[in-house]
Design goal:
Blueprint: E1 19-23, E2 26-30, E3 38-43, H1 50-61, H2 63-68, E4 71-77, H3 81-94, E5 109-111, H4 116-120, E6 135-140, E7 146-152, H5 160-176, E8 190-191, H6 198-206, E9 212-216, E10 219-222, H7 226-233
Parallel strand pairs: 3-4, 4-5
Antiparallel strand pairs: 1-2, 3-6, 6-7, 8-10, 9-10
Bound molecules: benzoic acid.
Length: 236
């Protein structure tokens, strides 16, 4: 791919582009196979590289945590299936890192030597690399809609606690019809939709509800217990 080649990239709110692919767990039909649950599709630049190895060990160690929040993981790189298999076997058999060892990656890792999927998802960003995917992360909801996209460059390992925070925040916004403020974490106050009429604005400002705080008519928060959040978003 040329450095100045222009490519359409999926956007937040779009249907996740469809594809069939070979993975380390067999063939997948994306996003159809994941409908009804959340899925994170993420790319990494290459197998047998250090930042990617640290990321895969971290993500695989958190897989159950994501699973409990009804979210599956799917990885991708512009490498072949046998490279993927050899790399994942090496991770399990040989790498001990930050207290993680014998880490088995059981989520699918897509082989994409042709870059067909990587190009569909704007994962090849020629200014950064023409033959490798950047570190892209797509959060796809149970209806197959892209809800968040995050891109990182080759040199920067992702923060997986942040990816989990994003997932829980998206699910909380859906479940409670609220928005989440800067740096929100479960248990923090959430934002009530901005008043859409003068009457509601007045009501909000005059509210005696102890759970509601209005910093001004357009900026009101309410308490939302951590337990209530996890009751809604975690699988029983
Ligand atoms: C890495 O994962 O270590 C890496 C991969 C490609 C370029 C730079 C770093």
């Amino acid at each position: 791919m040329e450095e100045n080649e222009v490519m359409a990239m999926p956007r937040i709110g779009d249907h996740a582009p469809e594809f069939k692919a070979i993975t380390t767990q067999g063939e997948i039909n994306f996003p159809k196979d994941y409908s009804g649950g959340w899925v994170i599709l993420f790319s990494h630049p290459a197998d047998f590289t250090p930042v990617c190895t640290s990321e895969f060990m971290t993500f695989a160690s958190m897989e159950k945590q994501f699973e409990k929040a009804n979210c599956k993981l799917v990885g991708l790189s512009v490498d072949g299936l046998y490279s993927h298999i050899a790399w994942l076997r090496t991770i399990k058999d040989r790498i001990e890192y930050k207290g993680m060892k014998n880490v088995e990656v059981t989520f699918p890792l897509i082989e994409d030597i042709t870059m067909e999927v990587a190009k569909k998802y704007g994962m090849i960003q020629p200014g950064e690399a023409t033959t490798k995917a950047v570190r892209a992360v797509f959060f796809v909801d149970p209806k197959g809609i892209i809800r968040t996209i995050i891109y990182y460059p080759l040199s920067l390992g992702r923060n997986f606690d942040e990816l989990y925070r994003v997932l829980i925040a998206l699910q909380t916004a859906d479940a409670f019809s609220i928005a989440t403020p800067a740096d929100w974490r479960p248990g923090d106050d959430v934002i009530i939709p901005t008043a859409g009429s003068c009457g509601t604005a007045k009501e909000r400002m005059e509210s005696k509800d102890k759970d509601i705080t209005c910093y001004d008519w357009f900026f009101c928060t309410r308490k939302l217990d951590k337990d209530k959040v996890f009751e809604k978003v975690l699988k029983k």
